[in-house]
Design brief:
The protein contains four helices and seven strands. It has a single domain (about 15-160), classed as Gcn5-related N-acetyltransferase (GNAT) (Aminopeptidase, 3-Layer(aba) Sandwich). It has helices at about 15-35, 85-100, 115-120, 150-160, and strands at about 40, 50-55, 70-75, 105-110, 125, 130, 145-150. Helices cover about 30% and strands about 25% of the residues. The termini are far apart. Strands 4, 5, 6 and 7 form a four-stranded antiparallel β-sheet that branches. It has a three-stranded antiparallel β-sheet with strand order 1-2-3. By secondary structure, it is α+β, with helices and mostly antiparallel strands. It binds coenzyme A. Coenzyme A binds next to strand 3, helix 2 and helix 3.
Length: about 160
């Protein structure tokens, strides 16, 4: 998944196997330490790995840090089946109800419309101002990012049963 150029099209580069393994290791450590993080996703029917979704604390250099980010990445064969939104709904329910989060954000490159569509499906609210990602050259086509947020109140307003 992490070395597929299509999956990684909105990141500065695809990952080597070593970088991908290091990321997986960091995910394991975060979950062991805090009880939450970026969780591996498996198909309920077969148990096969399809990607990840969950929460992350992004860099302190972002203009809206400190914050908790929700993120998603699926291997290409599993796109367009509703899995990212389903997994994010489950993560948000856990984040707001069990972990007591008051707000989560999501951000992505301005032209990552597939990820933006997940944010909209989750009823996240777009900010009216884009930002330049501080780790990307401002001239790079991926530098401009959109920011969305979701408060616990907004989540509960549409999930009164959750
Ligand atoms: C961003 C990403 C996770 C979105 O995946 P996705 O499959 O488009 O999103 P969802 O899982 O919500 O699926 C929605 C699609 O499934 C369709 N779908 C099919 N069956 C469905 C079902 N039973 N229930 C819900 N949706 C269903 C929807 O109609 C929608 O299709 P559309 O794309 O034609 O509108 C994926 O493109 C990805 O991994 N991209 C690379 C990594 C990345 O950029 N991550 C974000 C960085 S911030």
């Amino acid at each position: 998944m992490n070395r597929d150029p299509e999956v990684m099209a909105f990141f500065p580069s695809a990952l080597t196997t070593t970088a991908s393994d290091n990321l997986a290791q960091r995910c394991h450590l975060d979950i062991a330490k805090r009880g939450w993080g970026l969780w591996a996703l498996e198909l309920a029917t077969s148990g096969e790995f399809i990607g990840f979704t969950g929460f992350n604390i992004p860099g302190k250099n972002l203009p809206f840090s400190p914050c908790i980010e929700i993120a998603w990445r699926l291997a290409r064969p599993y796109w367009r089946q509703g899995y990212a939104t389903e997994a994010a709904q489950a993560a948000l329910e856990f984040g707001f109800n069990a972990l007591g989060f008051s707000e989560v954000v999501a951000f992505t490159a301005q032209n990552n419309f597939r990820s933006r569509a997940v944010m909209l499906r989750l009823n996240m609210q777009p900010s009216d101002q884009n930002f330049l990602h501080p780790d990307i050259d401002p001239q790079h086509p991926l530098a401009e990012h959109v920011l969305f947020n979701l408060t616990r109140e907004r989540w509960h307003a549409t999930h009164s049963d959750a």
